[in-house]
Amino acid sequence: MIDAHNHLHDTRLVPHRAAVFAALVQLGVTRAVVNGTREDDWPAVAALARGHAFVLPSFGLHPWHVAARSSDWLARLRENLDANPAAVIGEIGLDRWIAGYDPDAQREVFTAQIALAAERNLPATIHCLRAWGPLWDLIRTGPVPARGFLLHAYGGPAEMVRAFSARGAYFSFNAYFLDDRKAAQRAVFEHIPIARLLVETDAPDMRPPDDRNAHPLHDAGGGPLNHPANLALTYAALAELRGLSVEQLTAQVAENFARLFGK
Ligand SMILES: [Zn+2]
């Protein structure tokens, strides 16, 4: 199984790291794209990748962190990619849900990163909340990596799947969509081209609903975390949704992942 999007380096998972990694080995997780979200956490992503062969390091500046960027953030991103030849780009994106968002700064930072991904033909992982129109404008007109890009935990409308696909999009399914209130979003995944499906946890965020959560986990303050081993139930749920066996879905996702992220 492959987790196309998570944050295994997150400080909230550090106290649980030994148990979490043991669980992933037992599950047979062969690859995980571990996404940095700001200059500060890129070294932790690189360190994790050095220690664990299944970790694919990914560096990006997330829209939530654009305000805190340094003046030379883009040069530092290039340096991190140069120093880690296996690395890919993400998490990047647009977000009009987060309080106090700055659409101009987000657009500038996103555009620079997607252009860098296109220049190096590296897969890019994109976060989008309440900004599907603005994102589409940039994807439609701007450069995108020839090998494609990932719309992680795709929460956009079904009507946009075809257009995004034509520009090279892949779409990852997250168990967060198993919540009853997310039934409409879950249904969108019935219509995504089979060759463009991936599976993710976004751990330690976006956990499945409590009655489906197979691995309850909490931070030091008692706040709930998403255990990355919830990947197994995410595969099972998407397989059921698509009328496939877990084995069939696992094989298809491995093929899709290799096409997008394989080097
Ligand atoms: Zn994420």
What string gives the helices and strands in order? EHEHEHEHEHEHEHEEEHH
Instruction: Specify the number of helices.
Output: 9
Computed CA radius of gyration, to the nearest angstrom: 17 Å
**Spatial strand order of the main sheet:** 1-2-3-4-5-6-7-8
Q: State the share of residues found in helices, binned by percent.
A: 25-40%
Total strands: 10
Largest sheet: 8 strands, parallel
- The end-to-end span amounts to 18 Å
> Which ligands are bound?
zinc ion
In CATH terms, what is the fold-level topology? TIM Barrel
Mean pLDDT: 97
Structural class category:
alpha/beta
How much beta, percentage-wise?
15-25%
Shape: globular
CATH superfamily: Metal-dependent hydrolases
Write up what this structure looks like.
This protein has 9 helices and 10 strands. By secondary structure, it is an alpha/beta fold. It has one domain (2-261): TIM Barrel. Helix 1 (17-27) links the parallel strand 1 and strand 2. The chain is globular and about 45 Å long. Zinc ion (ZN) binds at residues 5, 7, 35, 91, 202.
SSE layout:
Elements: E1 2-6, H1 17-27, E2 31-35, H2 42-51, E3 55-59, H3 73-83, E4 88-95, H4 103-120, E5 124-129, H5 132-141, E6 149-151, H6 161-166, E7 169-174, H7 183-188, E8 197-200, E9 217-218, E10 224-225, H8 231-242, H9 246-261
Parallel strand pairs: 1-2, 2-3, 3-4, 4-5, 5-6, 6-7, 7-8
Antiparallel strand pairs: 9-10
Helix pairs in contact: 8-9
Residues 5, 7, 35, 91, 202 line the site of zinc ion (ZN).
